[in-house]
User: What shape does this take?
Amino acid sequence: MLSPLKRLGRVAIVFALIGVLAGCMRVDRSLQVNGDGSGSYILTVSFRQPEPGVPASVSQSVVAPMEAFGAHVRQTGGSYRRSDDQGYASWTYIRPFATVLAANALLQEDPRQEDATHSPVLFRDTLHIARESRLSSAVYHVTGTVSLVDLFHNAQNWVDASESIGITMAGGIILKHGGVRQGNTVTYTIHYNESTTIDVMGRVGGTSDVLFTYGTFIGSGMLLILSVALFILGVRLLRSGSSRRRKQITPSPTQTAF
Assistant: This one.
């Protein structure tokens, strides 16, 4: 069993690694889905340089997994580049895909898989894309969560962290929850200790989305028609009942009044 002093030492090492690997980090994602299911996924992960303007000051414990993931991306048909700007070291991974099934596989990968030490980092995201059948339409549906919630309460290192994800549906947006829409793109942005839910539907090329686009109007129109029909039926029933009662009360012309 480890002594309290040794346990404290390990905890200190873990938090030191957290500060080195994830301190002041930025994550930017861009997902574009075309009408035929092809598209591109771009992931950029940035770390603040310990010595601003000195790229070599970035720890090798950061550089090694980032470069290893870059090699993996190249081997699987993508590309990557490193850039150093405004005191940040950034790695950008660009990955084309031919189907949403392939895109979904790419969304599950990031540089953490190349970190042999499995050091903790701040961002924890789950993203999924699928082609689904809804009502009379087929849609591309992107769902999941992006999170910068600090489980280690290490605000000193992460307070400036941010993450954004822009989802572009080239065929048009059908439905979205949350985020900010501009044209065919919905962007979600979070900062330190925040998380958000991703939910965007886009048009599949060559399919109809009438019920999605006009569903509210169609539903409201049908409800109005049903309400009017019930009102007319009710009025007719009332009039019919009133007419029958009058016939029962009115004396027959052959009856004699005393």
Notes: The two ends are 116 Å apart (CA to CA).
